[in-house]
């Protein structure tokens, strides 16, 4: 398996922008937990079949896809239902992440996991890159991007790991409050660093 760099950060921190830059500028393979979380509940998957068995067909849209907003409402006020869903999906997501990581062809691979700290998935990575921004920046970006109010964003922030908790596990940190040119330069430096680390890892394995 390739050397794994996990990228994490809170909502609105710019994780996707950072990951996409590694891919576009440096041709590094990406594995994205959020993308996989959608894939494991597509029609005809084990995940969606189990959800239908548990919640009934009313959990589906007319086209047969999962009604995500309906599912969120079902689990929002029920810790037991949320636990049931997490117990179903987390192993499926983790298994698919590992499968995709094993197929990576680039010198190292980027694993994007928004809830890395919350789900204690640090063990999946050789190194952890935290994308860090000020809380007000997170609020402003998410309000503009998702067209929601500040109270909703603050509620999401409260449900996620704190900046301090994420920074405590970081091997590398990108401060993403600045402009895109600075970001490109930072990522280029990290890319060179990760190439060296991945090569060192290969050399150690071959000794």
Automatic annotation (TrEMBL):
EC main group: transferase
One Gene Ontology molecular-function label: ATP binding
EC number: 2.7.1.24
Pathway: Cofactor biosynthesis; coenzyme A biosynthesis; CoA from (R)-pantothenate: step 5/5
Cited Pfam families: CoaE
GO BP of this protein: coenzyme A biosynthetic process
Signal peptide boundaries: none
Record's keyword terms, sorted: ATP-binding, Coenzyme A biosynthesis, Cytoplasm, Kinase, Nucleotide-binding, Transferase
Nucleotide-binding listed as a keyword: yes
Alphabetical list of InterPro entries matching this protein: Depp_CoAkinase (IPR001977), P-loop_NTPase (IPR027417)
Annotated compartments: Cytoplasm
PROSITE patterns to which the protein is assigned, alphabetical: DPCK
Entry GO terms, CC: cytoplasm
List of residues binding ATP: 12-17
Catalytic reactions of this protein: 3'-dephospho-CoA + ATP = ADP + CoA + H(+)
Record keyword Cytoplasm present: yes
Family the UniProt entry places it in: Belongs to the CoaE family.
General function of this protein: Catalyzes the phosphorylation of the 3'-hydroxyl group of dephosphocoenzyme A to form coenzyme A.
Name of the molecule in the record: Dephospho-CoA kinase
Organism this protein belongs to: Aliivibrio sifiae
Source taxonomy: Bacteria, Pseudomonadati, Pseudomonadota, Gammaproteobacteria, Vibrionales
Gene (UniProt): coaE
């Amino acid at each position: 398996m390739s050397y794994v760099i996990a990228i994490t950060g809170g909502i609105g921190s710019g994780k996707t922008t950072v990951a996409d830059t590694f891919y576009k500028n440096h041709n590094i393979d990406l594995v994205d937990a959020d993308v996989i979380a959608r894939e494991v509940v597509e029609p005809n998957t084990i995940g969606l079949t189990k959800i239908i068995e548990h919640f009934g067909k009313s959990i589906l849209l007319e086209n047969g896809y999962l009604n995500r907003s309906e599912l969120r409402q079902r689990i929002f006020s029920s810790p037991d239902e949320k636990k049931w869903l997490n117990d179903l999906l987390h192993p499926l997501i983790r298994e698919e992440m590992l499968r995709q990581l094993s197929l990576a062809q680039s010198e190292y691979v980027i694993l994007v996991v928004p809830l890395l700290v919350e789900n204690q998935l640090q063990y999946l990575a050789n190194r952890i890159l935290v994308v860090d921004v000020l809380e007000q920046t997170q609020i402003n970006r998410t309000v503009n991007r998702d067209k929601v109010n500040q109270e909703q964003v603050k509620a999401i922030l409260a449900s996620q790991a704190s900046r301090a908790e994420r920074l405590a596990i970081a091997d590398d940190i990108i401060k993403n409050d600045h402009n895109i040119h600075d970001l490109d330069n930072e990522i280029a430096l990290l890319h060179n660093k990760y190439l060296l680390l991945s090569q060192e890892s290969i050399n150690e394995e071959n000794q």
